[in-house]
Amino acid sequence: xxxxxxxxxxxxxxxxxxxxxxxxxxxxxxxxxxxxxxxxxxxxxxxxxxxxxxxxxxxxxxxxxxxxxxxxxxxxxxxxxxxxxxxxxxxxxxxxxxxxxxxxxxxxxxxxxxxxxxxxxxxxxxxxxxxxxxxxxxxxxxxxxxxxxxxxxxxxxxxxxxxxxxxxxxxxxxxxxxxxxxxxxxxxxxxxxxxxxxxxxxxxxxxxxxxxxxxxxxxxxxxxxxxxxxxxxxxxxxxxxxxxxxxxxxxxxxxxxxxxxxxxxxxxxxxxxxxxxxxxxxxxxxx
Length: 287
Ligand SMILES: Nc1ncnc2c1ncn2[C@@H]1O[C@H](COP(=O)(O)OP(=O)(O)OP(=O)(O)O)[C@@H](O)[C@H]1O
Ligand SMILES: [Mg+2]
Fold this sequence. Notes:
By secondary structure, the protein is α/β, with parallel strands linked by helices. It contains 8 helices and 10 strands. The strands form 2 sheets. The protein has a 6-stranded mixed beta sheet, with helices on both faces. A 4-stranded mixed beta sheet has the order 1-5-2-3, with helices on both faces. The radius of gyration is 19 Å and the shape is globular.
């Protein structure tokens, strides 16, 4: 089925509000930002069909940090790509709330592989989205520099990506995403390839940017501890075709760092998530 990119909505309608009241969503607050109902996706080619997602029901609330966990190949990236509009053929309904009238982007993706242009300087990479939106040079550079400063790359504004480490490239990608000022940040294993120390530092920086800007974030990860450190809630997905198996609250105080989370609560939640996930991982390897 050919579709428009996910619809933006401004006012919650009664049908969608009723749909949001499933039991696992009861503890979340705020108004819905993303509503997915019965979302499915099958990739078809001449020789094969792969059902990646089936019947995904999910509500993500305004300013929420929402994490998605699931076995490899269960459709996490596919779901984010649908939310971003990169995948336009799917079944079911997706609505993304938008209060903005300035024509700016509603969603912005941050990928594991950075997605930065090797021939552009760090500053021009970070300012690129604003350039595409027609923002004047002085304004876009000011904004880009302020986010480069927040991620500790002010001195590297004129460097080229090949002069940066992996962690620094991912900082560029994050600075660019925040500079673009979308309402929703879609992050697909952004720190997946980084070493543990760099990953921790970037998690802390990301949480600090998120609490400053209060963006809605949908964050895909394979790392249970990362999901618990970052998320307000997390969803565990089933093996392919992926659906939502369970949504859990991460009811831990903020501001959070790995070290500040009470060990008992952390361990209990980690065990619970692993219990949910391990069955699905097993199914995905035997399939
Ligand atoms: N463009 C495509 N064409 C055909 N099949 C695809 C395409 N993209 C993904 N798939 C298939 O859809 C399924 C879900 O893929 P997807 O990349 O969404 O999974 P994932 O959960 O992000 O996996 P991982 O954790 O390994 O990143 C897989 O079986 C994959 O082979
Ligand atoms: Mg993926």
